[in-house]
């Protein structure tokens, strides 16, 4: 019968050399009009698309690829709300970003996001797992108080720029909107934090860092964050505190205190509830030595 007739479109191409496959399956004559679409995109070189950013980047993307394998299923039952379900994974690999002069910012060998049954049309958004493997982040605080990782963000608009016409404030989140993350896992990560300004230069390193955060639920309506378990099975920390610089006369005029900026009333915060926290295999080392800038 016509009810069981399937339409199965497909499309294949290459996107700058990367294979792209789209396959679909639909029953247009059923009441619910079931339709599915599968997207497979492999080894897309993201460095090719940096030039298309709507701003001039203040960093260099030396390498980065992405794989996308997603399946979408759409249903519209008669007289009911449409349903959309997403399953699959998106994986970033070999991400290396540096400052324009080549200084390291971050290195991410693998960042994988897995969806089991994401329903974007409902009030609950669910992600099965986010996995970050062997990431290395080099965070540096400059003398002016800025951080090097801020260079990854679009440049701030000039204060002298012509003001734009006022826009309507964004609508508040829909009541009861929830985000659920089954697991967030960090494996063998490394973080370097450096301060070279001031009298006491500082370098902090965390390596072989492992972390698992299980069953996180964010409720925007109730403004709550519930976490079932946070556990770290391994980490090594080291702190090097620079010796004070030799005292010398200074003729620097003390900076005038700034007038505090007028701030609007802050939004109410979130209530965070963590059921269980555990750690094991942590090691720490603290030392004092002459560091650059000290």
Summarize the helices and strands and which ones pair or pack.
Layout: E1 10-15, E2 18-26, E3 35-45, E4 60-75, E5 83-98, E6 104-118, E7 124-133, E8 136-141, E9 178-195, E10 202-219, E11 224-242, E12 271-279, E13 282-289
How would you explain this protein's 3D organization?
0% of the residues lie in helices and 55% in strands. Strands 1, 2, 3, 4, 5, 6, 7, 8, 9, 10, 11, 12 and 13 form a 13-stranded mixed β-sheet that branches. A hairpin with a 5-residue loop joins strand 5 and strand 6. The termini are far apart.
Please describe the biggest sheet, giving its number of strands, its sense, and whether it closes into a barrel: 13 strands, mixed
Q: Provide the succession of SSEs.
A: EEEEEEEEEEEEE
Low-confidence segments, given as residue ranges, are: 247-252
Q: How many E strands?
A: 13
Rg to the nearest angstrom?
A: 25 Å
Overall shape: it is globular
Structural class: mainly beta
Task: Calculate the terminal CA-CA distance, rounded to whole Å.
Answer: 82 Å
Oligomer: single chain
Q: Portion of residues in helices?
A: under 10%
- Percent strand equals over 45%
How would you concisely characterize the structure shown here?
The protein is 0% helix and 55% strand.
List keywords for this structure.
single chain, 294 residues, 13 strands, 55% strand
């Amino acid at each position: 019968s016509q009810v069981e007739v399937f339409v199965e479109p497909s499309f294949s191409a290459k996107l700058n050399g990367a294979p792209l496959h789209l396959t679909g399956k639909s029953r247009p004559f059923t009441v619910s009009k079931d339709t599915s679409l599968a997207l497979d995109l492999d080894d897309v070189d993201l460095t090719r698309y940096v030039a298309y950013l709507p701003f001039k980047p203040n960093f260099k993307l030396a390498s980065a690829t992405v794989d996308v394998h997603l399946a979408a299923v759409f249903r519209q039952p008669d007289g009911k709300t449409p349903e959309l379900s997403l399953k699959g994974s998106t994986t970033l690999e070999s991400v290396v970003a540096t400052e324009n002069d080549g200084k390291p910012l971050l290195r991410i060998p693998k960042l994988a996001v897995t969806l089991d049954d994401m329903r974007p049309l409902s009030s609950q958004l669910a992600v099965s797992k986010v996995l970050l493997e062997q990431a290395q982040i080099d965070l540096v605080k400059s003398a002016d108080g800025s951080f090097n990782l801020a260079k990854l963000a679009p440049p701030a608009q000039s204060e002298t720029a012509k003001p734009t016409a006022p826009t309507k404030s964004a609508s508040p989140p829909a009541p009861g909107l929830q985000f659920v993350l089954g697991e967030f896992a960090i494996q063998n990560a490394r973080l370097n934090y450096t301060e070279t300004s001031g009298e006491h230069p500082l370098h902090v390193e965390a390596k072989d860092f492992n972390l698992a955060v299980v069953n996180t639920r964010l409720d925007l309506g109730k403004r709550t964050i519930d976490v079932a378990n946070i556990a770290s099975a391994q980490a090594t920390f080291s702190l090097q505190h620079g010796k004070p610089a030799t005292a010398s006369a200074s003729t620097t005029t003390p900076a005038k205190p700034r007038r505090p900026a007028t701030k609007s009333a802050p939004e109410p915060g979130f209530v965070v509830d963590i059921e269980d926290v555990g750690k094991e295999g942590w090691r720490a080392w603290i030392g004092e030595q002459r560091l650059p800038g000290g």
